[in-house]
Amino acid sequence: MKLLALYWSFMIIGYILGWRAAKRDRHFSWLAKAMMGTVYGLCFIMGLRMGANEQVISNLGKIGGMALIITIFTVFGSMGAIFLTRRLLGMDRRGEFIADVRSDAKAGGPAAKGDGEAESMDLGNTFIILAIVAAGMLIGALLILKRLPQILGQFDAVSFYCLVVLLCVLMFFVGLELGGSGTVIDSIRKAGLRVLAIPMATMIGTMTAGVAACLVIGFTMRESSAICIGFGWYTYAPIVIASAGQQYMIASAVSFMHNVIREVSGIIFIPLAAKKIGYLESTGIPGIAAMDVCLPIVERSCGPNTVIYAFATGLIMCVATSLGVPLIMGV
After folding, report:
1. Residue 175 lies inside a defined structural domain of this protein
2. Which domain holds residue 225?
């Protein structure tokens, strides 16, 4: 939670500066490229860390396959539940209330932001990110893990510090763009309490589809629920599951792999899902990471109005995970 407070402090500072710049009619023409460069650097370091992690590499076989199946079910379950919810709420694929869009159109107001403007992270960028993560994993596994195992401790500390710094920079850039857009406050007012419907749909979709997949694979109801309620928090949920006893070590390993895959899936597939399916649906892919690591990608792929849904999703999931996993495992 301390790191989350740090990240959001940088975003708030950026928002204030962006808002003041917009008041003076100043624009940051360099911001889009700077954000993408920072995202690429962040993805490379994450790939390095995964490749240098013995637990990740050693679990890429059977356990990795189970984790992948669970992730596919949870992601599509989340997006399906969000799709149904936004249709019930009367929202279009951009997350705008259809009645408001029609009212603006009749009144001669500004048209909704088009796909090309919000979706600056296109399919090409998705493949670039995928290639960067893969390259990082290869270098981490072949160079650091295999050839330089004596520096693993130092590498973990330095790479974690680099991740924190890059995330702070990225959140600052997000704040600049949000402040410069001037639409976030209006979006919150329009959504009201309905903004909570998307996080609830994401969690229901995750638990329904994910638990079903776990049960079919052969996990117990307790293990299945604990794995899925991790919601992408791979530094917390697996540790709590493992602390319940040696009999849960396989469930812990699958939880770790599943949550890592879910976060990485968000980094890679949010732009594609936003373009092909819907803005709100894309926020359900990464789970908790929607409010930090993946937030800049949501902003670039979907526009600033979707950020409030991504943040609410991550925050509510964070609370649910921190309470749910210990309760389920009885620790």
Report:
1. yes
2. 2-9+32-329
Cβ(121)–Cβ(127) below 8 Å: no
Tell me the whole-structure pTM to 2 decimals.
0.72
Residue 20 located in a structural domain? no
Q: How far apart are alpha carbons 268 and 125 in whole angstroms?
A: 9
- Whether residue 217 is contained in a domain is answered as yes
Q: What is the pLDDT of residues 112-124, one digit of tens each?
A: 444 444 444 455 6
Listed ranges 52-56, 165-169, 177-181; the one with the highest mean pLDDT? 165-169
Sign of CA dihedral 235, 48, 270, 59: negative
Q: At what angle do helices 249-276 and 62-89 cross, to 10 degrees?
A: 40
14 part of a folded domain: no
Report the distance separating Cα 95 and Cα 93, nearest Å.
5
CA pair distance 328, 331, nearest whole angstrom: 8
What confidence tens digit (pLDDT) does each residue in 19-54 have? 888 777 777 788 878 888 888 888 788 789 878 888
Output the CA angle 73-77-80, nearest 5 degrees.
Answer: 140
Number of domains in the chain: 1
Tokens 């530094």 correspond to 235
Q: How many residues does the chain have?
A: 331
